[in-house]
Hints:
- The structure is a single chain.
- The protein is α+β, with helices and mostly antiparallel strands.
- Helix 27 crosses helix 29 and helix 44 runs antiparallel to helix 45.
- Strand 23 (about 825-830) and strand 24 form a beta hairpin.
- The chain is built from 52 helices and 33 strands.
- It has a five-stranded mixed sheet. A five-stranded antiparallel sheet has the order 20-21-24-23-32, sandwiched between helices. A four-stranded antiparallel sheet has the order 4-8-7-9.
Amino acid sequence: xxxxxxxxxxxxxxxxxxxxxxxxxxxxxxxxxxxxxxxxxxxxxxxxxxxxxxxxxxxxxxxxxxxxxxxxxxxxxxxxxxxxxxxxxxxxxxxxxxxxxxxxxxxxxxxxxxxxxxxxxxxxxxxxxxxxxxxxxxxxxxxxxxxxxxxxxxxxxxxxxxxxxxxxxxxxxxxxxxxxxxxxxxxxxxxxxxxxxxxxxxxxxxxxxxxxxxxxxxxxxxxxxxxxxxxxxxxxxxxxxxxxxxxxxxxxxxxxxxxxxxxxxxxxxxxxxxxxxxxxxxxxxxxxxxxxxxxxxxxxxxxxxxxxxxxxxxxxxxxxxxxxxxxxxxxxxxxxxxxxxxxxxxxxxxxxxxxxxxxxxxxxxxxxxxxxxxxxxxxxxxxxxxxxxxxxxxxxxxxxxxxxxxxxxxxxxxxxxxxxxxxxxxxxxxxxxxxxxxxxxxxxxxxxxxxxxxxxxxxxxxxxxxxxxxxxxxxxxxxxxxxxxxxxxxxxxxxxxxxxxxxxxxxxxxxxxxxxxxxxxxxxxxxxxxxxxxxxxxxxxxxxxxxxxxxxxxxxxxxxxxxxxxxxxxxxxxxxxxxxxxxxxxxxxxxxxxxxxxxxxxxxxxxxxxxxxxxxxxxxxxxxxxxxxxxxxxxxxxxxxxxxxxxxxxxxxxxxxxxxxxxxxxxxxxxxxxxxxxxxxxxxxxxxxxxxxxxxxxxxxxxxxxxxxxxxxxxxxxxxxxxxxxxxxxxxxxxxxxxxxxxxxxxxxxxxxxxxxxxxxxxxxxxxxxxxxxxxxxxxxxxxxxxxxxxxxxxxxxxxxxxxxxxxxxxxxxxxxxxxxxxxxxxxxxxxxxxxxxxxxxxxxxxxxxxxxxxxxxxxxxxxxxxxxxxxxxxxxxxxxxxxxxxxxxxxxxxxxxxxxxxxxxxxxxxxxxxxxxxxxxxxxxxxxxxxxxxxxxxxxxxxxxxxxxxxxxxxxxxxxxxxxxxxxxxxxxxxxxxxxxxxxxxxxxxxxxxxxxxxxxxxxxxxxxxxxxxxxxxxxxxxxxxxxxxxxxxxxxxxxxxxxxxxxxxxxxxxxxxxxxxxxxxxxxxxxxxxxxxxxxxxxxxxxxxxxxxxxxxxxxxxxxxxxxxxxxxxxxxxxxxxxxxxxxxxxxxxxxxxxxxxxxxxxxxxxxxxxxxxxxxxxxxxxxxxxxxxxxxxxxxxxxxxxxxxxxxxxxxxxxxxxxxxxxxxxxxxxxxxxxxxxxxxxxxxxxxxxxxxxxxxxxxxxxxxxxxxxxxxxxxxxxxxxxxxxxxxxxxxxxxxxxxxxxxxxxxxxxxxxxxxxxxxxxxxxxxxxxxxxxxxxxxxxxxxxxxxxxxxxxxxxxxxxxxxxxxxxxxxxxxxxxxxxxxxxxxxxxxxxxxxxxxxxxxxxxxxxxxxxxxxxxxxxxxxxxxxxxxxxxxxxxxxxxxxxxxxxxxxxxxxxxxxxxxxxxxxxxxxxxxxxxxxxxxxxxxxxxxxxxxxxxxxxxxxxxxxxxxxxxxxxxxxxxxxxxxxxxxxxxxxxxxxxxxxxxxxxxxxxxxxxxxxxxxxxxxxxxxxxxxxxxxxxxxxxxxxxxxxxxxxxxxxxxxxxxxxxxxxxxxxxxxxxxxxxxxxxxxxxxxxxxxxxxxxxxxxxxxxxxxxxxxxxxxxxxxxxxxxxx
Length: 1662
């Protein structure tokens, strides 16, 4: 196995793991499905921690980005930005558990050397485990070295340190910022750039154990300095959570920002190894992030990691068919040039920066590395960690690209810029994508006559250097190569054909952005300048876009190009019926025969031989393989066809020119298949490759890889066994996991469809059809029915239907914990044609044994017989802490106690490969008691008030993992407050006792207390409460670590607090659940024990927490508009992020309807009702479809949609008997049928019956009564729209309908016919593997941005982009979120072109990976419109805004808070182009919507009034302008007071309008009085300037630039110094006050939540 794994690692780099060009790494959905998602990267955004007037926060809606930006940050060259004092509540984007985090302390007033020479570094290796001591030792050694280090005055005193000189002439080495793991700056910032890219040379990275990395650029590459040791932080400086004991993860060197189309892997940084790091992604992050997607590798099935090395390749064998790697080199010269010019900034965050780091007493995090689970007990064992930490790797890498000259037959030589890190294979890919060489696939690259190995890195090739000549040599074909060549040519011919996108094939998907930009956006985002005169702009929106329009046309969803039919090069290209060649022809070199019909209608037979392709003399009916005369022998099929068909030659050239002009993101494959719910009529063309794939059991190119059929289980498990000690290894591992999983998901989906369509033979054909199981392509398939009454006690078929999704959630959770030695099965759940199919990888040997013999842990009969195994207990115990699972004993059938560390249903099986597998994880999380009535058990009052418990249709209702995490964090806060309160009471009592006596020196304790608190009182704030929390933390840590004595009374307080919150441990905070409590059939030794009672109470408390905290929290966020769902999917996502199951949806709708803010929640109410109705309809549709045979599907689906949505009262289903009419009567063989015996019962469904069923379903499943007998009643009663209902039911059920206009309201004819139903797609659920390091970088970047450090944040987001791209490939929703944030940062920092380029990529990626009408895509269009306007592309901006408005109208309707923002944007742009009447329509609509959803007196409404007033002023209608501005002024005055800046501005504008109105009236009077003789003074009609319009656009889109004067900067500096002095005083006072109790740093004050930064001179000059 070992040799196999090591051999496959090389292949992984080559085929499966072809590194993607980070230039492509350009969500949505909110990126990460973590509880902080909507605050981190989704539509609810950042707010900078900057204190400003109240107006700013409300006027600038939280749109997902910072709403306040310091202008000085933009002009700063140092990479630092200033922040003003702020309230912590304004930091919306911070990690959600910052309140309980604790950071390094005691260092804020220390001045630190931020630069030293390399020689000094060699001497500066410290062995101290204490961070201050380590730094002191380093500085001492540097000082002894004799160099003067550069000093940065973190203390704020410029005269406290020595001169800021550089050292002895070597390139300075700088210590990166030191931050706590929460992302708060401790106060060390390196003031200058780390290494200039202009100084091309060698880089050295010393990965410091557990701490920040030192970065250097040495003079001599051969010298490798010893690594200095900076540990993870002194023990009492930072309280470490159990899972985080290994310390913060050091980050790699910041990598260059990706640009579009960069060479596949020119970055040497990627290959640089790092010191050993513990991967400590918190469990809630790893398990709750829901990125959607997989890499966009062109070779659809890479080499499996588990397969043996491929056989030696023939010299001409290409590495792989055309893939996205082929796109990697577009524009590479410019990319490399940019990369060299770009300078690096030191980044100050560890990979964990944005993650919470609580204490050892907090539950460990689910996503941490297995090594951390083992090591968290050793957190005080410095020796143990020192061994790991000193395992450092220093790799010196040359970062220089070079140019080679390519010699290709038939064309002129050309230069190609390459990187030493690239493989030869990547040059193959570039040549297969270039316009002039794309038709070549079978060739080798030769240097000086030597053939280059495809899997060699260029740096390893002797003699390859700048200016080398690489020769492309045509090689002989094999059958495999010939097939690859034909496939590649077919792909080139179809490259512009959208049919695969509409049909949901090969991960193709739709994008329409280019139709609205019309080429205005170049490849780099720079505008191709055209005439930009205003009169050339057509601003008139389509009629259906205008406010108030009730028309919702569907045709515009997928606009068709003028040339709908792409260029056609051939009529037919297919395999000949004469294949395969007979033996005698094989010996002449014949490999295969092709049949071609050219556009000139010439029928040609072509032979593919070892020498190439030639025309033979065969016809359709006679076989004559001899070469024709002339034979046109050509090495490439394209060259041959170009000779025999002039039209082919002309059209193929034009086609390839168009292909390479398309944006790469329009061409590469998406991670997972995205299906479109509408499609136009697409012509079905003849396609030999499609036909071949349809009848093989393989996917795409799999038949061309070694090993043939893939062993999915071996691949999935082998990739998890790959090493992960450092960043390069983790990237390789995550890339492998992601790639294999994505291939597995695609294969499982295809197999599930084949099973339901009846194309796969069952392995138990004699059983009843519902009980049958299938194996296809090494994947096991089972149906979601209750076979053998397995789920009889849990709800029968209903339980069997929901069990696979619960099991999938369990697999997701255990995969996220990622414990070494514990394996889960690859699992995909597919819903197709009304059936649920579970696809799983196969455990080796499982099919050869009985289940009873195989299971050595758990139970196969829900608790009757239970077994355990010590190895499984050992492995599962490592997962118990992060997953909050309590180890417990249950009784088996012999009344013996059996110890378990999971639910009883979890089964452990050791496969023939000796791996320990767990499966059936459906009860990983504890039961939801609100939907599980238990006799004799009462729920808390909060639940019973809301009508719980309720009987559900199955007994497998579980709490979500997000809820468990939120509940534990909530309990931790309760514990901290409880302990702090009791400690403070204890302290007060102690002081009272002490005050009765007099101390030895005669001073009373009161005097001492007064002295100690003098400095504290200066601040005027009560610090006692906060210091109590700190004291509680410190005591809790001391008790847990047992490293020092603790006052018995204080210890008792902490232990009581543990007990009060339900901790299972007496010495640490540790909340865990027993998943088997209340499980039917599970018995415990003593059902009345205190332990069981505590566990039951904990479950009841969690159920109460859901209804009393999480649901109200969601509603509050909706009232505040921090959560803005637009459709059912985004509403469900918002619920899931807070741990709320969909079954609570009716409860949310009910609470919204009773809320005082009902009007502001109207959109939530409508969305909730829509979701309840469509989900209930889906439940009915599922059963309805099971009774339909394949030939009747389109009729049945159209009949169902007519009954559901059409106003036609009596739709009749025409049974499918028309197409095949036979005059002969014959007995037809009855087909295999999974559903009911009567397969025509569906035809008798009527609209009344269906809506009655829907009403019953909403009542039974959701406990919500709709009481509607028809769709029209529902529409009228709840204010819904039919097109949105249609979209929801199609998306949820996988229906694809014809793109046309549907008349829903006709009472004379049904809306849908059978011809309108084009397809039915699978709905797929699967695990989404994550890029953990990239996720950490992304969060760190967000934390920096929130603190105001824009450049550092931008650098980190760029780094995250590179890492995401490394793992996912070029196309993924998480990359989309990176691009969106990068674009916003580019825009804020004034780089409009770069913002436009990044946002264009984000829009394309959102369209491709999420869908053209996904709510995330709507928002991406809005952002792109803003950047287009800033770039002067007014027409394009309007088109994008109109597109965005149309999509929102289709998805939801007009009455949505987001529509106000959209209409304000449109109105402002129209105002800018002087379309005043149109602008008024949109702005007045925005005013009305803002008034409804924010209240008539909100500041948003005041701003809307002002915008309307400006348009009226431009129209010279001063009376109306005055009225609106008066309304706005009144709101400002009442809300902000007379002295506020906004009120004054409004007052000034009112005066101006009054003057203008008076002047106008005087002029009019003069005209009336004197007629034509009147002397008229010219009136000032102010046309808006583009700058003023852009300023208003920035305001409404959440960007406010605050100019800072020199005085402001001086005040800020003084405030920083004062605060540091105050904090030092507080610390010293507390140290004197308590000798026996060492209190931790006071880092939890409000003031400390802000970074303290010394203003730079550049910022001061701003």
